[in-house]
Structure formats: C-alpha cells, structure tokens
User: Fold this.
Amino acid sequence: MKQSLIFFLIILLSNNIFGQHSKPDTLTAMFCENQIKLDGKLDEDCWSQAISIENFTQREQNEGEPATEKTRVAVVYTTNEIYFGIWCYDSEPDKISAQQMARDFNWRSDDNVEIMLSTFNDNRNGYLFATNPNGAMADVWVTDEGKDWNKDWNGVWDVAVDINEQGWFIEMVIPFSTLKFTKDSAQIWGINFERNIRRKKEQLLWQGWSRLYDVERISQGGKLNGISNIKQGTKIEIKPYVLGGFEFTDGETDNTGKIGGEVNIDITPTLKLNFSANTDFAQVESDRKQINLSRFSLYYPEKRQFFLEGKNYYDMSVGSNRLFYSRRIGIDQETEVPIIGGVRFFGKLNKTNMGIMSIQTNAKDSILTTNYSVINIKQDIFKQSTVGVIATQKYSDKGYNRVYGTNFTYSTSELFGEKNLIVGGTVALSETNIFGDNENLNTNNLSYDLFLHYPNDITEFDAGFTTVQKEFNPEMGFANRKDYQMLYTELQFNPRFKKMPAFRNLILKPIDINYYINDQTKDLETIAYEWRPFGFVSKSGEFMEFNIMHLYDNPVEDFELIDSIFIPAGSYWDHRFEIQFNSFRGRKIAAQTKINIGEFYTGLRQRFELYTFINLNRHLNVGFDWQRSYIQLPEKSFITDELGGRVDYAFNPKLQTSLFAQWNNEDDDILVNYRINWIPKIGSFFYFVINQEYNTDNGISIERTTIIGKLIWRFAI
Assistant:
C-alpha cells in the first residue's frame, strides 16, 4: 500500500497541470453563395468576410508559448460542400519543408496542417485531414480519440496550395457526402487544427496544446458552429472495375480478365451498406517477406483496401490476440482464394457503433468454398468509455468455427485534473465443430485479459494480465501463442529539463516485463525483461535509446529455427544489449538503425538493421533497408540477410508511381513490384501493375512476370 501511494505521488509531481484552451474556442462557419476556385489564392470575397481564428499555441518545443509564425483559419460552406481556408504565414518561406507529394503521404516529415473534425460531436471519433506545401493529401478515420487509426480510409475531397513570399496558403474542400453526421438542421461539430513547422521542430495547436494530448484527442478541441440546412448529397455510390492482364511463366502465357465492383448505399447519414461482387486485389503491393527466427508465427498487416475501409468497426482483441483478422479471408497459406462477393454494414447510430460483414469465397484446389461472417457492436457509455460484443463465424462443408467476445473500456482524460487513464478487459470463447468428428473441441476454449494504461507525457505506466487456454481457436483471428497466462507491466519516465538545451526529453524505463506461464501446468515458459538506463529525443529531432534485455524461454519440444537447424527443448537465459538511433525525418537524408547483440538459445546472435530515407526533390523519394543476423550455434553458424528498396515518384498529388523490390537469402528470390496509381477524378482510380519474381539459387533467372491494368470508376447518384 505504501509503495502504491509513493508511485501515485510520483505521477502527480511529474506533470504540470495547467489549462490548454484559449478564446475563442469556437469557430463559426459562414455560408458562401459564390463559387470558390480551388487554387490556394484565398482571394474570393467569402474569405475576407468569414470569421477567422488565429490563437495558436505551441505544444512543442515550448509548451504553452505563443506561436513564432502566424496561422489563420476560416471556414465557409455551400449547400453541398465545406471549405477550409488556412493562412500559414512564414518569415522564411525559402525554408519551408515539403518532401512528399503522393496520396496518403507520411506527413510527419514535412511542414503540414492537420484538421481533426468530429462530425458526430461525440468527443471520440472523427476524420483527420492532412496536407503539406506540395498539396499532398492524407486522410485518416480516427476512433476512440486516437487509440485506433485507419490510415487506409480514403475520403472524397480535394486541396490546393499556393506558396509565395508570405508563406503557404491552403484551400481545402470536402463534400458533405464524404462525411457522416446527424440530420439536425443546425450542426455543431468538434474541431481542432495543428500546424507543424519542421525546421523549428515547432508544433502548434488551436486548442488542447498540452503534451498530454494529440490533435486526435478531439475532446480537448474546440467547436465548429454556424452550419445549417446542408445536404449530405450522394445516397448511392457505384464503383465498378474492369481488369485485364497477362502472366508469363516458363515460356507460357496466361491471360486474365475480370469485372466486378461495389455498391455503397447510405442507409442513414451515418450508416453505410456495401455490396461487393467478384472482389479483386490485383493492385495491392506485395507483402514484405520476413525470415522467422522464432518459434511463433509472424503477423502480416492487411493491405487490401476493401477490408481496410471501416476496419475499426470490426476490431476486438484479447491482449495481442485479434478476434478478427481480415487476412484470413481470401488468403489460405499464402494462396490467394477467389472471393465471390459479400455484404458489409457499418457506421454509427446515435451512440452505437456497428460493423457487420459476410463474405463468401470460392473453392480452389483442395480449399472448400467458405463463408466468413462477423458482427461487432460497440456502445459509447459515460463521457469517453465503451462496452462491446463480437461474434465471428467461419463455415464450410467441413464444419464451422465461432468466436464470441465482449469487452469494456473505461477511459478518462480528467484523472488528477487532466491526466489520461484507460482500464478495461475482454473475454472471448471459441466453438469449433468438425462435421463427422465426435471429438470435443469446446473445453479449455476461453481467453480473457485485464489491462490498465496510464499514457501521459512525463510518466507512462501499463499493466495487465492475459489468459489464452489451450483449445481457444479463433480461425478468423490471429493468435500466435496458446495455452498460457501472461502478466505484463511497464513503467517509463520522459523527463524534460530546461537546463539541458540539447535534449527535448530523456527516456528512462526501469521496468518492462512480460511473464508467461503454461495455463495448464503452471510451468514457467517465457520471461521478456527489458530496462532502459538511457534514451533521449533531442531538440533537433533525433531519437536514441539503449536497452538491456534479459530473455528466458523454455520450449517443451525441439523446434526448427531455419533450414533443418533445430533448437533443442530446454531452458535458456539470454542476455542482450540493444541500441536504436533515428535521425530527424524532416531532413533530405534520414536513417534509422538498430543493433542487438547477445546470447541466442545455444549460441550467440548479432542483429543489425538499417533503414535509409532520401528525398531528392518534392517528386522523388528513395528508400533502402537491410537486416542482417549473424547466428553462431554449436552445430552451425550462418547469416541471414533481408534487403528491400523502393523508389517513389509523384508527378502530382493525383499521379504517382512506385518501384519496390525485396530479397532474402532464405527464399532465394527477388520480388519486384512496379505500380502506377492515377486518380482521374476524386473517388476513381487507375492502376497499372507489374509483378516479377526472379530466382537467385544459381545466378539470377526470371520465373514469373504478371502485368495487370485495373480501372475503378465512381458513379454517384
């Protein structure tokens, strides 16, 4: 009890509590009868007549201090569209940083402006729109105030930027059909703005500029009013596609051609019904292959746009185990399985978030035609908290697998005045039935977790407990480990000292531990303990950390590490040292590196990683990465290499091309992916893709070439 009181006293004393709002904290939009030309000039009468705000405050580098450069924002609207005018004045316009131009660019390396817009005005969810001085566009669907991001959400909107001797200036238009909001005649939305001046490492917010919050924390933002009698517009969206191409393998040529598409219907202004037929993902970039030097399966992120849209509505996890993992649909053991079609229904009704999906895949070789269904309902309760339920089902002629789960999350940003706290838990149960098999698979099939997060600027603390029983089997989810109980806790301090001019803050981590025991035998299985005696973020934007790691693993049976090299069953204590360093990404040349050296089961391992980022001009960006492991074991020593490189060239924000290549010495092949992505009009896309595979066993020889063109056209009714 005494230790708990001391810990919370440290928390209270390690953070400054102060207000982070200034007046005005409400922005009034003005109706505009005249047409606005989207050119970034901001010379229409509407802009001179509109009410504007200028009270921006520093979050970084000097929290609470006035901005060093003036920023002004105004909002006007028509019946069908909303416009944002943003004046980013700059006393040194020749030093404006803008490296990227591509759609969905990484805006954290450039000067930028971000708009966080909560049209539900629920202090939880909303849209984030970002642009830079090149007029690049990025958008994100944000839920639970930034705890979940869907960077792959793509809205229909546009932006234009003008740069002159006074700075850079933005005109942004968003059709109301892109946004979801209630039918109220008068709208009140949550809103906040962020501007970043990279050369100064200066981050400005309109409201909520405390380091405890980011711009996604919309509950700390301001309000947008004055919008009334608007039309959401599009009720039905039809997006057919046509695809054609060739594949060349061993001197043979196969032709391919497909048609299909989607129909999107707005059931209400906040609920969307989606139908898909003959769904295809030919334009998706190849996965980055990884050499697995562990005894657990690897996780690969979803890249297919169809499943990424609205993905937040289907997510629920037990610890690190996902109850729904969309890559289980249409992919079986790295084999693509044709999707016949499906239906999705997702959105928000009052305080209820819902996601319903049913997808049918076709038979392929020995893989049966299968139905995949999921329903996830999450209810907003209290000010920032939620309770939810989920059910998934995978069904074929072979049998079915079902998972049922529920969770509760209590979240507040008002602990001790303005600190963040998140506590909650999840419980899930699986049910498996193989037709004709009388074996009982539905005992020891439970999983659950409890967690506490204290994510704040100076002090961060996490703790939790997870159990996954032996027969828990989420076939539509992802669980790389079963039959365990795991206790974890982490404590990190990020102190700031005004008398240390080189550092923005230090990073000190006295404890970070994951402690696993077998759920049935209670035998110790794994301990992963890490502590960080020193780390820092510099005022120039560099990041460094030094970690000391102590790892215990107790595999109960031999497992194959790589190429018939086995790690014997037994108990192992490994001690390692790790150094990570990242240079500031806003520079023309930036790099990230990691060195990890120490014991590795029966031997030793040295792991080196290097990632480089080169900005040649605003159109052309080049990257290269290399991961190498030296493994010395009693029976054999060997080296693993993984190489990757990419070239991105953007002609303009709506026409871009990329070349990505990868190789590793385990698979001994080179994979090359070349893509052209053209947006002929907002909401429509054309892709031209070339995929090639080269074998490197004995020299370099080409094995396969695929050439595909795909056009997706949007019709709005």
Remarks:
- Confidence is low (pLDDT under 50) at residues 1-19.
